[in-house]
Specification:
This protein is of the alpha/beta class. It has 21 helices and 18 strands. It has 2 domains: about 170 residues, Ribosomal Protein S5, domain 2; about 240 residues, Rossmann fold (3-Layer(aba) Sandwich).
Length: about 525
């Protein structure tokens, strides 16, 4: 009996497990049998693998080939197992001698070329964590795989190159003319370190209160809701939030890049995502597209792609009520766990939520509302789609008034770099103060910290107690006002929030007129 082995990685969410690929060549009618819970895309790889091997110069055995993916109880999906399967099958025939600890991650074309696959970054991270640092990938995935510290990456363009490196007979291999080793990179993704410059706050005229709310949101990591008429600048403000956020540190960048590697869409990644990502799904987005899901094992949605960045929902009341309420869990925990019949997957989703809404369905209920054509019932139904528990989790809720001619004549305000400098200093103060609590931002503060060492100055929060007794402020809202007060104090360099900071925070919390 001839038995060959190779290794690959199976991803369930961002968690990867080593899969041992065993190939056996035995007697019986010619066949290619694949065992071990393969999905449809993996089950159809049999003919693709045979063609790729033939076009590399070394055909698979015409006898009965049985391939087993171990552990058999772990679901396997995708075409990234192609390379490991063909290597194991050829090892069973004695054609190659793969290293025992090497991991193979690539899809095969019919001509034998190696194609990039999604999720290489988290797969390589899992391989290195399991002690398998020797990784073989397609040339197009090499730069992405090399982002993982400790990995020894081998990138090849064609199966014949892999087989030659594994000891196959060079005289039998088809010579392949590979493309240049470093092809011209594709246009950079908006969340990458590319030369694309983010929108600048200097483009915005007026809106001083909304700009300050945006700065507070950036400094403390708070969620933000803006209510105002069409054309007031709500979308412009939201789009400029990533430009004043600090760049991601190494751990945050690696985790964020891993999510985008698995989600795909922009092709193989060549660098860590350092700029906070920005996701703005259309209001017709389904639950699966926003939260994550799909057939088989669930895939990451916009909420996870916005991890460590901004999730912007324009025209928020137009979204499905169920979709909006599904955000309540990640807003609290920073994580999404999705369960399906094929299994469950967990993805990080610690984003800043920014909601934008008109004051009514027609958008004209401003000032005296003389031009508004909406009935009271229509307005109530419009904002009723934003449930109380969801709004209670939004720290900052501000009005964005219509821009006037005086605002335009006054020119633009501060640019993003100036504001980003103050935000960075406030974040530094937070890191130093919260290091002992294992936290990084004011938005992560809990009730225990706010009632203990991080309580505001004596008497500063007296007004909050009165609002709670009147039923106008919930216990969760009380804590969120104190978090905002700490951020306001950090922006002015104060050591502890005072009465004025608390009053400013309360105003930013209740500026839309909604219950806090």
């Amino acid at each position: 009996m001839s038995l060959g082995r190779a290794s690959a990685v199976s991803l369930v969410g961002l968690n990867g497990s080593i899969v041992d690929v065993e190939a056996d060549i035995g007697g019986g009618l010619p066949a290619f049998i694949l065992l071990g819970l393969p999905d449809a895309s993996l089950a159809e790889s049999k003919d693709r693998i045979r063609s790729a091997a033939r076009n590399s110069g070394i055909e698979l055995s015409p006898r009965r080939i049985t391939v087993n993916l171990v552990p058999a109880s772990l679901p396997k999906r995708g075409s990234g197992f192609d390379l490991a399967i063909v290597v194991a099958a050829l090892a069973a025939a004695g054609e190659v001698r793969p290293p025992r600890d090497a991991v193979f991650l690539a899809e095969l074309g019919l001509d034998g070329c190696l194609r990039p696959v999604q999720g290489v970054l988290p797969a390589v991270m899992a391989a290195v964590a399991a002690g398998r640092s020797d990784v073989v990938v397609a040339a197009g995935n090499r730069a992405e795989a090399e982002l993982v510290s400790g990995a020894t990456v081998h990138g090849y363009a064609h199966l014949s190159e892999v087989l030659h490196a594994l000891g196959a007979d060079p005289a039998r291999l088809v010579r392949h003319h590979a493309p240049p080793a470093n092809p011209a990179p594709a246009a950079p993704d908006p969340g990458s370190d590319g030369p694309v410059k983010p929108p600048d706050l200097a483009d915005l005229s007026g809106q001083h209160e909304a700009r300050f709310a945006l700065e507070v949101a950036a400094a403390g990591g708070h969620h933000l809701m803006m209510v105002g008429p069409p054309g007031a600048g709500k979308t412009m403000l939201a789009e400029r939030l990533p430009g004043i956020l600090p760049e991601l540190d190494d751990a945050e960048a690696l985790e964020t890049t891993a999510v985008h590697s698995l989600a795909g869409g922009a092709g193989p990644l060549e660098r860590l995502i350092r700029r906070p990502p920005f996701e703005s799904p259309h209001h017709s987005a389904t639950m699966a597209s926003l939260i994550g899901g799909g057939s088989g094992l669930p895939r990451p949605g916009a909420a996870s792609r916005a991890h460590r960045g901004v999730l912007f929902l324009d025209e928020a009341p137009e979204f499905s009520v169920k979709v909006l309420d599904a955000l309540r869990q990640p807003l609290e925990s920073g994580r999404l766990t999705l369960h399906r019949a094929a299994g469950s997957a967990s993805y990080p989703a610690r984003f800043q939520l920014v909601l934008a809404a008109n004051p009514c369905p027609c958008g004209m209920s401003v000032g005296k509302g003389l031009l508004c054509t909406c009935s009271t019932q229509q307005r109530r139904r419009y904002f009723g789609r934003l449930s109380g528990p969801l709004l209670d989790r939004i720290d900052l809720q501000v009005q964005v008034p219509r821009v006037t001619s005086l605002d335009l004549a006054g020119g633009s305000g501060e640019d993003s770099s100036t504001v980003a400098g103050r935000v960075a200093e406030a974040r530094r103060l937070q890191r130093e103060r919260l290091a002992g609590f294992g936290l990084n931002r004011n938005a992560e503060l809990g009730r225990r910290e706010l009632a203990g060492e991080l309580a505001p100055e004596r008497g500063a929060a007296a007004s909050l107690g009165r609002l709670m007794d009147e039923g106008r402020l919930t216990a969760r809202g009380h804590g969120r006002v104190l978090r905002i007060a700490w951020t306001v104090a950090d922006l002015r360099g104060a050591g502890r929030p005072g009465t004025e900071d608390v009053e400013i925070a309360l105003h930013l919390r209740q500026a839309t007129g909604e219950a806090a």
